[in-house]
Every structure is written in structure tokens, then in C-alpha cells.
Specification:
- The complex is a heterodimer of chains A (276) and B (198).
- Chain A is of the alpha/beta class and 276 residues long.
- Chain A has ten helices and six strands; from the N terminus they run ααβαβαβααβαβαβαα.
- In chain A, 56% of the residues lie in helices and 12% in strands.
- The longest helix of chain A has 35 residues.
- At the A-B interface, α1, α3, α4, α7 and α8 of A face α2, α4 and α6 of B.
Chain lengths: 276, 198
């Protein structure tokens, strides 16, 4: 067998795995299985905290992500927004990454309309700020100085929802919907300096980064990845796309485990054959 | 027919075509993504930051002191000139100086003091014992002033096992995240585009 044949076979094997993975993920989306889903303590902590807030408490949703992670970020944001709007909390949106601005604005308006919330009266989208360290610190002084106008360019002081909102002392919690390190910056600058309650709604990749802050009590709780979103959808009693995706997630995990076991078995057998 | 969804679906398939091999459709989709992202970033930055935070204060509200940071910002672009590039270090030095001044106490408080406090736990439960042993052993592993022999060697070895567990759990979460992205795209293709699922 020549070198070219080996390469060709290698590529075909890779393609075979891709096709199998697509089938394993797609099949449970079409034919629902309904595997049981357990709500973890860290997601329950987030739910409990927001649920105990008095009506008209103010929360900031910071959309600190790019569009590449929308499948994880949007279900998380939607579930948390639904809870906040249902609890009649004042919701303020902002973004520390430019791509999060359009997504955040769309999320707020879409979920707000489900609960008949009015822009400017019940919620407001401040917009995007670069230099997230400066932005996070500046909100601790005067919010209307950092965001003199909202995303649409109107003076934020002209909106009734801004009444009595000056800085972090008027904010019950910051929910950072993030796919990178920015939730850590919220801990460093808003929590450590101003004592703001931080709720990270992050990608699964970022979960292990956030756990030390959760253990130290610097975070209210943690909702991570599509699973975190599915758990939150269960808690608010409105199963959505995240819950529907959990069967596919479980199937894909089993497939990856099988691949790892088969791959290692083949590798060990190959080594033994060479050793003889 | 929603043309936006169709365009998004075609671009998604173009990106996934890379799984077969590099091809012009993938390249076109990649270039569109880059161009749109940069264009969007510039537009959003100008409309939501430069105009309300710089141009309106200077030209409408007469806050002339805002000219100074404006000029400093523009001086950053001098780095593209061979002759004038040293001047770009002035705003850079301000950013670094202020940044360090702001971040060092915050990092000390949030990342070191708070984490140290969280490790000072009563030895009354298995999880507390695991946390204490893990922190100490990993710190020993990263202590390179002594050879990893004897008691330090044993501590470092335990530290390696804890690090391996951490890497394993991080990899597990990474797999979960990547699968979630695939689920999201398939939900979009099968649901929003083709209407096979709700």
C-alpha cells in the first residue's frame, strides 16, 4: 500500500466519523427520546437568587459574546430573560463585545414582547462599549456618564426605566452572558471592587474557569452551556430548544466515548502487535 | 420565503463543506464572515462610542477637554509612519500605566486574596480535604526552586494527578460546547430552514 493510499484511507475514515456524528446528533432532534434531565445546584442557585428579588429590582444583562457561540448563548439568555421579565424586574442590556450588541438588542426585544414589556419603561438596551475594563469600572460611578445614549442614540435619562438608577448600588445583579474571559473581568472589577452580585451564563468551555469563583462565593451561581440553559428552561417551566437539544447532546457524548474507547483499544492492540 | 434564513443556511453549509476538504465555497463564506465582522465592528464602534462619547461632547456640548483623549487616540495611528511611530508610545504608556494601576489591586483582591480565603477551610468534610490537598499539591508542582524529589516529589506527583483531572474535565466541557454548536446549527438547518422540526 503506497503513501497516497494511506492518506486517502485516512481522509475517508475521518469523513465516516463526521457523517456518523451528524446522524447521531440529528436523529434525536427529529425523533425525540426525552431522556431525564437533572437540575444542578449551581443553576438552582441562580434561579433561587433571581426568584427572590423583589419586583422592579434592576438587573444588567451584559452580552459579552460573539456570534460564533450563539447556539449556547441565546438559549441561556432567553431562559434567564424570561425569568426576569416574568418576575417584573427592570432589565438593562449592554454588550462588551460588538457582536453581542445586535444579538442582545434582538433578545431583549423578542423576549420582552412575549411578556408585553415596553422598551424604555420595563427594559432598555444601552449598547456596546469597547475597553471592557474601563466600561465595567465606569458603571460603578455613573451609568449615564458611561452610556449617555442608548443603542438607538436617545438620551438614556429620557427613559422612565432609568429613574433611580445611578450606578451599581441600584443594581441587584449583573448577568454576564459570555463566551470568553469577560465574566472573569466582571468578578475582578465589579464584584471585588463594588460588591456587585455576578451571575455568569457562560459557554461550557468556560465552566471550569468559573468554578473556583463559585466555590469562593464570588459568584451567585453558574449556568454553563446548553445543559445550563436546558436546566434553566426546566426551572422556569418553559422547555425550549436547549431541552430539545439535550437528547442529541447525550447521544453525541456516548458516540465520543465509544470513539475514544475504540481508538485506544486499536492503538494498544497495534502497540502489542509491534512489540511481538 | 425568508431569504435571510436561506442565505444563512447556504453559508452554514459552505462552512461545513470544509469537513470534506478546502474549497472555494468555504473560502468565500470565510471571507464574507471576516468582512462583515470587521465592517460591523467599525460601524457599531463609531455609532455607539465615538459619536456619543467623543464627537457630541466636543461639538455639541462644548466639552473641549475631550479633545485631549481624542488626540491621544489618533496619535496611536502614528505607528504606521516609520518617522513618527515613536510618538504612538505616549498614549500606549498611559494605557499601560493606568491599566496596571487599576488591574493589580483588583486582581490581588479577586484572584489571590479571595481564592486564598476560599482555601482556608475547616478539615471536616471530604470535599474540603480534597480542595486543600489539590491546591497545595498543584502549588508544589509549580515550585521549581527545588528538585522534585522526596516529599516535594510526592506532592508534585499528586499535583500532576489533580491537573490531569482538571484537563480531563475541561476537555469534557469543550467537547460538550462543540457538540452544542453542532446541535444549534442542525436545529437551524432542520427547523428554521427546512421545517422538519419545531
Amino acid at each position: 500500500m503506497g503513501q497516497n493510499d494511506k492518506n486517502k484511507m485516512g481522509i475517508q475514515g475521518r469523513h465516516f466519523i463526521f457523517i456518523l456524528m451528524a446522524i447521531v446528533v440529528a436523529a434525536p432532534l427529529i425523533f425525540r427520546v426525552g431522556l431525564p434531565l437533572r437540575v444542578t445546584a449551581e443553576v438552582r442557585q441562580v434561579y433561587g437568587f433571581l426568584d427572590r428579588l423583589p419586583p422592579h429590582s434592576a438587573v444588567i444583562f451584559s452580552f459579552d459574546h460573539e456570534t460564533s457561540t450563539l447556539p449556547e448563548m441565546v438559549p441561556l439568555a432567553e431562559a434567564l430573560l424570561r425569568h426576569c421579565f416574568r418576575k417584573n424586574l427592570k432589565v438593562f442590556g449592554m454588550a462588551l463585545l460588538a457582536e453581542g450588541a445586535a444579538v442582545g438588542d434582538d433578545n431583549l426585544r423578542r423576549i420582552g414582547s412575549e411578556y408585553d414589556k415596553k422598551y424604555g419603561e420595563d427594559y432598555l438596551f444601552w449598547g456596546f462599549r469597547p475597553q471592557f475594563t474601563t466600561a465595567i469600572l465606569a458603571l460603578g460611578e455613573r451609568i449615564d456618564h458611561e452610556f449617555p445614549s442608548d443603542y438607538t442614540g436617545q438620551d438614556i435619562r429620557s427613559f422612565p426605566v432609568m429613574e433611580g438608577i445611578e450606578n451599581y448600588k441600584d443594581i441587584a445583579a449583573v448577568i454576564t452572558v459570555g463566551d470568553g474571559d469577560i465574566p472573569v473581568y466582571w468578578v475582578n472589577y465589579a464584584q471585588a471592587r463594588y460588591g456587585v452580585k455576578i451571575i455568569p451564563a457562560v459557554t461550557a468551555v468556560m465552566a471550569t474557569t468559573m468554578y473556583p469563583f463559585l466555590q469562593s462565593g464570588q459568584l451567585v451561581g453558574l449556568a454553563a452551556g446548553l445543559k445550563g440553559a436546558a436546566e434553566y428552561e426546566m426551572l422556569i417551566g418553559k422547555p425550549g430548544r436547549a431541552v430539545k437539544g439535550m437528547d442529541a447532546q447525550s447521544g453525541a457524548h456516548i458516540f465520543v466515548i465509544i470513539l475514544i474507547l475504540v481508538g485506544n483499544t486499536v492503538m494498544i492492540a497495534g502497540r502489542r502487535r509491534k512489540g511481538r | 420565503m425568508n431569504y435571510g434564513i436561506t442565505v444563512a443556511a447556504i453559508l452554514t453549509l459552505a462552512i461545513y463543506s470544509f469537513l470534506y476538504k478546502d474549497n472555494p465555497f468555504y473560502k468565500a463564506a470565510e471571507h464574507i464572515l471576516l468582512g462583515v465582522s470587521v465592517g460591523y465592528f467599525v460601524a457599531v464602534t463609531v455609532s455607539t462610542t465615538l459619536i456619543p462619547k467623543l464627537f457630541i461632547p466636543i461639538f455639541s456640548e462644548g466639552k473641549l477637554s475631550y479633545i485631549i483623549p481624542g488626540i491621544l487616540g489618533m496619535v496611536m495611528f502614528l505607528r504606521f509612519s516609520k518617522k513618527l511611530s515613536p510618538y504612538s508610545r505616549i498614549p500606549l504608556s498611559i494605557i499601560i500605566g493606568v491599566g496596571a494601576g487599576v488591574s493589580i489591586p483588583a486582581m490581588m483582591q479577586a484572584q489571590i486574596i479571595a481564592q486564598m480565603k476560599a482555601t482556608m477551610l475547616p478539615i471536616n468534610s471530604l470535599s474540603n480535604i480534597i480542595i486543600i490537598v489539590a491546591v497545595l499539591s498543584v502549588l508544589i508542582y509549580f515550585y521549581f526552586s527545588q528538585p522534585h524529589k522526596g516529599a516535594i516529589g510526592v506532592g508534585a506527583k499528586i499535583g500532576i494527578y489533580f491537573l490531569m483531572i482538571f484537563f480531563g474535565s475541561t476537555f469534557g466541557y469543550t467537547v460538550m460546547a462543540r457538540i452544542s454548536l453542532l446541535i444549534g446549527r442542525l436545529q437551524f438547518l432542520l427547523g428554521d430552514w427546512l421545517g422538519f422540526i419545531d
